[in-house]
Amino acid sequence: MAPDHLSRCSSVTTRTCDAESTTLYSPLGVRRRRKEARVRVDYEELLRVVDKPGRYLGNERGAIRKDPAAVRLRFALAFPEVYEIAQSHLGLQILYDLLNRRPDVYCERAYAPWVDMEAQLRLHDLPLISLESGSPLRDFHIVGFSLQYELTYTNILTMLDLGRHSTASRASAARTIH
Prior knowledge:
single chain, alpha/beta
């Protein structure tokens, strides 16, 4: 199969879209892809030591891949629960599909890691990343959370902290000042 940025849209198992943007090969784009590739390699090493590594791969049928440089808006659809629980949520799947039907929007998914993966991310100083492109939450224009019940509210703070999102940093700084 051709690399994502060379593929035409198809709906077989993984949908990919054209990336006709010249920014794909710009020095900034190359550096960003190298950095994301390093994070992916580091993640692959962690998968050997965590239970259920498949929940962090994002290779399931229906996963949508686009070139982040070829869209105007990057949206992280975050679910403050582990992958297995989040994937059974129909509303999440509908939002993911609707947003990705727009050619100018790239919606990716992020889930709360299980405690073993959270510990490894903190130990190795790695960010929580999206399943599709491997980008930290801080790299998205919008991070939207689906809140099902109150017990997952603290998972939102954990995800923002692990994703190195500035909101979590400001909240942490405010707590230390007072």
